Amino acid sequence: MYSKQMSDPRQALRPSDALIIVDVQIDFCPGGALPIEDGQAVVPVLNRWIAAAVDAEIPVFASRDWHPRHHLSFSEAGGEWPVHCVQDSQGARFHPELTLPDSTIVVTKGVRFDRDQYSAFDQTGLATELRKQGVQRVWIGGLAQDVCVRATVLDARREGLETMVIADATRPVTRAGGERANEEMRQAGARFEITDLP
Ligand SMILES: [Zn+2]
Fold first, then answer.
1. C-alpha of residue 47 to centroid of ligand 1, in Å
2. Quick one: how far is CA 106 from the chain centroid?
3. Catalytic site residue 132?
């Protein structure tokens, strides 16, 4: 079992932090093409963190899955997933209630024809940009806990970043997958936080 700290976003953030919101897109929420149970529940929690990040002038990154129409990750092409997050489709949009500021830095992934990209760090240049901005610690939430959040957290640790998982701002594809992902993220040195709302 792993421990979770309580964190008030307005107290927790410091100047060398960044917030990374992973794939909070319509297709990953109930009613979407690849719905994650209770996926929309991450939105109000992340909105608290976004508001605190904006006030603290901490950069907000939002990754999006952004596939070409016949992507190899789709089951019709022999892949693992139903058709989802097709470029410029309604389902690929960020959740409409996610209050991303105009200053949000969008990280686009899943665009390659020859392979899928789960991690927001995977050949996107994100690590370079974080270093350029002097970021030392990242707070990560979004969808799905056992797929793209997991991959992003593990890469953040590989990049030597202090890594905080906002545990109440993520949901897994499967419960067992979520538990496995938590164990892997913990072993990689990520820490888990629960949002403490005053
Ligand atoms: Zn995808």
1. 23
2. 12
3. no
